[in-house]
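Q: Structure tokens for this one, please.
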Amino acid sequence: MKAVAIIAGKEIRDGLRNRWVVAMTLLMGTLALTLTLLGSAPTGTVGVSPLSVVVVSLSSLTIFLVPLIALLISYDAIAGEMDRGTMGLLLSYPVARWEVIAGKFLGATAILGFATIIGYGAAGAALAITGGEVEPEAWGAFAVMVGSSILLGAAFVALGYLASSLVRDPRTAGGIAIGLWLFFTLIYDMALLGVLVADQGKTVTVALLNFLLLGNPADVFRLLNLTGFSNVSLFAGTAGLAEQLELPKAALAAALVAWSAVPLMLSALVFARREM
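A: Here is the predicted structure, written as tokens:
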């Protein structure tokens, strides 16, 4: 495990030198603060908790932004180093290939987690400073949203490593990464909606729908944050959906962890069989 920690530390230092951490933190903080200040303005007149509005807004932002950032920092982690020749130097040391994958994954996830906590934490702090009345349940929903955002990012980091392990050209890995982002954030849900409309409830049961939703980490994140808390689901318009689904919050969180673990193990297996 010492080798894993060393590689993870190297990834974090590389991220600091490349200013990825600063750039991501500023981007996420700026967008989160903008949504917080603009989105919570009318809540006093409609009787909605301002933090519930923030959770809904940031959840919608996270589904598109965090997977894109995660794929951008991971797609060339293997293919890029092999193309530059630095991977051969790294493997000349007494380190296993799975340790390389694990260390890089932990380092990239730490970078993304730091940016998420600081960026979204700034939004929560700004809301607290304004002195708006916030329900305790809303703070719980906000904490779950931040934690699940990190899990969602970890899932797409793992998918990026899988893409990077499968090919030798980093440009090809980048193309695969963009395809993954488009598929999971746009195409999958559009296709699922088309199936539901065409089926009209004849074949797709609630149990099957639950299973299909678990097939997309972005949908798992959406369900966990927009249907897991009553105050948030009422504002988001997903209260009816929350009553139909049979997926508890623990199962959704476990699904996000599985979306990180399975691609990561596959990338380690593929990388172990690669020839330098």
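A few notes: The radius of gyration is 20 Å. Confidence is low (pLDDT under 50) at residues 42-47, 236-240.
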